[in-house]
């Protein structure tokens, strides 16, 4: 079974195409407003595209603008389940009957649908909450119930729209592990802003910016060798784009950055990106002397705590320093500084 998506929504500036194989999870990454939720809405049948085709297991769910008869299978008949940021459980039903709702709506009897619901509640670890109402359980428990409800409907495609975005940090890891287990053999389209979600849950990643796919591939490759600034930031990396010129990256602003190219090395004039972690950056007030290093003049935009250190951010780059170093350098928004990175710490990737 393959899910194919090739649709455009002109009013929202979205035009993307991709496939998801049976049992595969594809994560959609991108900044706010990039078009990720629009893609899910079209897949779920909640939004009609201006043109394109959405197909699941050879069955056309949406056909628009093809010059023939348009098709729009209603949401309840698409064999697709959508799990949003909020659980959206029915407040008047017990947790058990919320989860049993999907099987019941497909014509399964009351007893059989409750048996299915109990199995999925046990799968997500909240079988002891079956008799409670949604108002009597925590947010994390409610989201687990929503996962169980989505899967109890036995969808051919599961759509996840940032399912952990509304949860407390303390309960997110446990739900992430639950999803990793129960989604192992499911066909899933996942929208997330969290690199860890993509790493742990997705087989492949598609990065959407401005309504277009700008990068697509295996999750580990996309996050370790990003081709867009958003993906680099998501992965916690710095990235500078430019062209390969005489053994270095030459940026549009004239910076020359030495790094370690892949094998084979990029051809002269090729489009490349220089990628390096914030922890590889040393911060000075003036360019230091000594061994050849990349010295990048910057202006600090803000500082923020980051895992016991201080992350120094600029418009394009970031560096991690100790609180003591930040105080000694008197770093503050608007201050001029110099980011210094050894060439050995910078990976250069061809685009």
Could you walk me through the main structural features you see in this protein, from its secondary elements to its overall organization?
This protein has 351 residues and is of the alpha+beta class. It folds into two domains: 3-224, Rossmann fold; 240-350, RNA polymerase II/Efflux pump adaptor protein, barrel-sandwich hybrid domain (OB fold (Dihydrolipoamide Acetyltransferase, E2P)). The protein has helices spanning 36-44, 95-105, 110-123, 139-152, 172-182, 195-201, 219-224, 229-234, 323-328, and strands at residues 3-9, 14-20, 25-29, 51-56, 59-64, 71-72, 80-83, 157-161, 188-191, 204-209, 212-218, 238-245, 248-250, 256-257, 260-261, 271-276, 282-284, 294-299, 302-306, 309-313, 318-321, 336-341, 347-350. It has a six-stranded mixed β-sheet, sandwiched between helices. A six-stranded mixed β-sheet has the order 14-13-12-16-23-15. Strands 2-1-4-5-6 form a five-stranded antiparallel β-sheet, covered by helices on one side. Strand 4 and strand 5 form a beta hairpin. It is globular and about 80 Å long. The mean pLDDT is 89. Pfam families: ABC_tran (PF00005), TOBE (PF03459). Residues 289-350 form the Mop domain. This is Molybdate transport system ATP-binding protein. Residues 3-235 form the ABC transporter domain. Keywords: ATP-binding, Molybdenum, Nucleotide-binding, Transport.
């Amino acid at each position: 079974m393959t899910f194919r998506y090739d649709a455009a929504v002109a009013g929202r500036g979205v035009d993307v195409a991709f496939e998801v194989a049976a049992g595969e999870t594809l994560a959609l990454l991108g900044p706010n407003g990039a078009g990720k939720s629009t893609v899910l809405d079209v897949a779920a049948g909640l939004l009609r595209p201006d043109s394109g085709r959405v197909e699941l297991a050879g069955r056309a769910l949406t056909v628009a603008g093809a010059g023939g008869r348009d098709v729009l299978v209603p949401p309840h008949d698409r064999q697709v389940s959508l799990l949003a940021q909020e659980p959206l459980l029915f407040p008047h039903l017990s947790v058990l009957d919320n989860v049993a709702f999907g099987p019941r709506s497909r014509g399964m009897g009351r007893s059989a649908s409750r048996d299915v619901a109990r199995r999925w509640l046990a799968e997500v670890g909240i079988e002891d909450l079956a008799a409670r109402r949604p108002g009597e359980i925590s947010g994390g428990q409610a989201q687990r119930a929503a996962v169980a409800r989505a899967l109890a409907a036995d969808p051919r495609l599961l759509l996840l729209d940032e399912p952990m975005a509304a949860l407390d940090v303390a309960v997110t890891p446990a739900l992430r592990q639950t999803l990793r287990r129960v989604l192992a053999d499911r066909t899933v389209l996942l929208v997330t802003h969290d690199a860890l979600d993509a790493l742990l849950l997705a087989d492949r990643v598609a990065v959407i910016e401005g309504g277009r796919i700008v990068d697509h591939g295996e999750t580990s490759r996309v996050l370790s060798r990003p081709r867009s600034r958003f993906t680099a930031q998501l992965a916690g990396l710095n990235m500078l784009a430019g062209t390969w010129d005489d053994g270095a990256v030459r940026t549009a602003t004239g910076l020359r950055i030495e790094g370690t190219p892949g094998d084979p090395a990029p051809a002269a004039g090729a489009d490349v990106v220089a990628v390096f972690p914030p922890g590889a950056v040393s911060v000075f007030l003036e360019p230091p002397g000594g061994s050849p290093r990349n010295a990048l003049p910057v202006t600090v935009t803000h500082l923020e705590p980051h895992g016991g250190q201080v992350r120094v951010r600029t418009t394009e780059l970031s560096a991690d320093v100790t609180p003591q170093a930040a105080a000694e350098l008197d770093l503050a928004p608007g201050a001029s500084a110099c980011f210094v990175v050894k060439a050995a710490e910078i990976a250069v990737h061809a685009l």
